[in-house]
Amino acid sequence: MVVNNPRLINLLSEEQKADLASMEKQFAHHLEYTIGKNRYNLKNEDIYKALGHTIRDFLIDRLNMTHERYREQNPKKVFYFSLEFLMGRTLMNALINLGLYDTIQEMLRGIGFELTDVLEFETDAGLGNGGLGRLAACFLDSMATLNVPGFGYGIRYDYGIFNQIIANGSQLEMPDHWDADGVPYEVVRSDISFSVGFFGHTETRVSGKGKIQHDWVPDETVLATAHDYPIPGFNTNTVNYLRLWAAKSSEEFNLDYFNHGDYMKAVQDKSISENISKVLYPNDTTEQGKVLRLKQQYFMVCASLQDILIQFREFKYNLKELPDFIAIQLNDTHPSIGIAELMRIFLDNEEMDWDEAWDIVTKVFSYTNHTVLPEALESWRVELFEKLLPRHLEIIYEINHRFLSDIRNKGVLSESEIQQVSIIEEGNEKRVRMANLAVIGSYRVNGVAALHSDLIQKTIFQAFTKVFPEKFNNKTNGITPRRWLLQSNPSLANLISKKIGNEFTTNLYKLKDLEAFVDDADFQNDWRQVKFTAKNELARIIKSETGITIDPNSLIDVQVKRFHEYKRQLLNILRVIALYRRIKENPNTVITPRTVVFGGKAAPGYYMAKLIIKLINNVAWVVNRDKDVADRLKVVFIPNYRVSLAEKIIPGSNLSEQISTAGTEASGTSNMKFMLNGALTIGTLDGANVEILEEVGAENIYIFGLHTEEVFRMKEAGYNPSEFIHQNEDLHRILLMIRENFFSMGEPGIFGPIYDSLFYTDNYLLMADFTSYDETQNLVAHDFLNETMWTKKSILNVARSGKFSSDRTIREYAKDIWKVPLLDTIPPQTIYKLPQN
Q: Which pLDDT band holds residue 13 (cuts at 50, 70, 90)?
């Protein structure tokens, strides 16, 4: 047993020894009584489940202690509303944050198991689509680490983001039943349940005070039941929670139908009710899908606000004091219906006057915008909204009427600008603009990168800045170094800590101390060895996942992210085709060996994004089998990209592709993850790339392409992509290869839409940026051959990544928006030496 291991015992405090002894007993108990196994028939999966339940017990103890502290101190609390939380795997992160990784590893080795093998049995909790959900997960980690009383609220989807399968080069979607084998770290709060209504009508009555009151009478009700996921801070006793709501029918079945023999009808209502939390992002191309999506949004905020108000009322404060104790952050527009819901509660349930209610609401909510694209701002048809949430539509109309009347009286805006800021979009089909509701109903509105925050004030929210200049601010996104360095790249984390100590785990700016060693030849060699080991591991994963053998000595060039045309994976594969064509024309040409890695999912209904995935895979099939190319160029598409896969891909990467059209990416966080792991960035001046350039220096990043202002000017002047194609013979011949079915011999014409899009419209200016991108990639290839120079650039990228910690972001939110005082974090006392995988 571990407690008899002298080597380990010497490293533990008396408190840790007691914790370990208790943990061993809990582990043995769960193994035998929860999992039902004994020492003669154990497998890695059994160990994982028993360990998950054991750590859950440990977390619950700290969770209860944390909430007892909050109860005594009654600090202001932050509630983070998000329809996405892309948590990935949880157990390893918990072990690292709790400082238990080495201890548990020794404990399992004592019974013949390896912790790294055990942890592979955890399924990713893919309850998000991409950066939006992963950002929310990083923020929860940072709030707990900084001892902020911060809690997440979302939906417990039965099926997360789909599993992606590649068949004949095309994406196929399979259900992601992520919790099929149970979730050992989940805490089901069956005692916390709230009723949520839909449809129905409103009625008016005269209150005892002689006021006209409104009552909403729903036709349908659903129960929201709480499921908690403990969120431990790093090296602190704080454990907060992520509370996810699962939909349950208010009735198991209709007894009348059952008694008359209609068994399917008897359970139909139950099935319809529980569909609300069935799947992340239902297909909303149908009316039924749109209704379900709006249901999900209201379901989440309705249950969450009821829960928050019950907690607030425990202290018997007046509701006027709510903003002093509660801050609600809206992560994008999806939860903005919460503004109307809190107004409904105050007006209808609490019988407040309008002005009093509105004053409270607008001091509680703040709103984070995540897009500069007008078409991405969520809106709903008034007809659908009125059908599903009739009372809320009445309230929204009243909010809009009062707001527009006020700004007309002030004479701040022209009539055309008033139309822009109206919550209701007029026209043949009236729509409710949720972003406008969020701006009007929040006391702060922030973008997620300096460029993005500037752009939203100059474009989509320009008129609002004249009305509310004080509302707008910037909070550049960040990532948690615990997940994206300690957990994903323990070898690099250990190398760094040996040189500069481990304070960087909670103060990422301390990485700046690495600059003192940038010219140290021994340190450079150690750095290269860590990177090469990670590249070998990535090569193993690629072989396992795709059957493709790559050279780990090659330049590993990676673009992994959600597939969207503005992210320009298509630009990347066009340049790959150019490189391939050059090799074919001159088979003896000498080039820097390069492995181009793609990964990511396209929305099921996004035809063009899925077609780009098909093109990438078809190009890979041709290139990887061509003997003229040999090992000089390989193209890989790794299927089913997810958080746990990102943790393995990013450490093994040399080059990070962040090549969106300037002015389209709000921030990006994958750029920060690659930077923190020593990859160099090739990218446009878009999103957080602008700030990465400022931090790392122009000589340590590869910037190309049009700037945002140039993009706008080119579009205003009437952009014609064919002009660029005719000017570049190389580009012209690449497009001909696509049009003439070079990569689709068995499916002629399949890539015609890609050719037509690039030649005639090219909405994201790939043709305009191609030459600059190609030239910059040639520079990358040249620099990579200079081993010492590349290593220095890699070290400096890590050393100057301090700004991009989510701890810094959360500190700024706490100070500037939430007005939450921060407790001092407990400095790390131990160095967590994680094994090199």
A: low
- Euclidean distance between CA atoms 264 and 267, whole angstroms: 6
Q: Which amino acid does the sequence have at 501?
A: G
pLDDT digits 0-9 by tens, 74-123: 999 999 999 999 999 999 999 999 989 988 998 899 889 999 999 999 99
Cβ–Cβ contacts within 10 Å for residue 812, how many? 17
Q: Is 561 a catalytic residue?
A: yes
Task: With cut-offs at 50, 70 and 90, classify the pLDDT of residue 824.
Answer: low
DSSP string, 267-303: THHHHHHHGGGTBSS--TTSHHHHHHHHHHHHHHHHH
Mark whether 452 is an active-site residue. no
Three-state DSSP class for residue 167: strand
151 and 242 Cβ atoms separated by less than 8 Å: yes
Catalytic residue among 236, 669, 681, 684: 669
Contact (Cβ atoms closer than 8 angstroms) between residue 357 and residue 346: yes
DSSP β-ladder status, 365-368 and 379-381:
unpaired
What pLDDT score does 283 carry? Answer: 74
Output the six-digit token pair for 583: 């090799």
Instruction: Let me know the angle formed at the C-alpha of 810 by 423 and 449, rounded to the nearest 5 degrees.
Output: 60
Q: What does the pLDDT look like over 708-758, one tens digit per residue? A: 999 999 999 999 999 999 999 999 999 999 999 999 999 999 999 999 999
The DSSP code for 805 is B
Catalytic residue among 562, 564, 594, 632: 562
In angstroms, the first-to-last Cα distance of the chain is 24
Pick the closest to residue 391 from 358, 344, 355, 436 (CA basis).
344
Residues 6+ apart with CB under 8 A from 429: 381, 382
- Give the phi and the psi of residue 124 in degrees, each rounded to 5: -60, 135
User: How do residues 200-218 score in pLDDT, each as one tens digit?
Assistant: 999 999 877 778 899 999 9
- Cα separation, 765 vs 759, in Å, equals 11
For 133-190, how does the pLDDT look when each residue is reduced to its tens digit (9 = 90+)?
Answer: 999 999 999 999 999 999 999 999 999 999 999 999 999 999 999 998 889 989 999 9
707 part of the active site: no
129 token code pair? 């689509």
Task: For the full predicted model, state whether its pTM sits above 0.85.
Answer: yes
Catalytic hit among 567, 610, 632, 793: 567
Whether residue 681 contacts residue 692, with contact meaning beta carbons closer than 8 Å, is answered with: yes
Poorest-pLDDT segment among 128-132, 204-208, 282-286: 282-286
Contact 203, 215 (CB under 8 A): yes
627 catalytic residue (yes or no): no
Residue 477's Cβ-side half-sphere holds a number of Cα atoms within 13 Å equal to 31
Q: Which residue has the tokens 């035998």?
A: 32
Look up 109 and say whether it is catalytic.
Answer: no
Return the closest-CA partner of residue 661 out of 603, 581, 719. Answer: 719
- Does 499 qualify as catalytic in the annotation? no
Q: Are 261 and 279 in contact (CB under 8 A)?
A: no
Q: What's the confidence (pLDDT) of residue 524?
A: 98
Catalytic residue among 37, 89, 614, 673: 673
Of 655, 650, 632, residue with least CA distance to 534:
650
Q: Strands 85-88, 125-127: parallel, antiparallel or unpaired by DSSP?
A: antiparallel
Q: How confident is the model at residue 600 (pLDDT cuts 50, 70, 90)?
A: very high
Q: Two tokens at 727?
A: 């000017």
Marked catalytic residue, from 391, 431, 561, 803:
561
DSSP state of 677: T
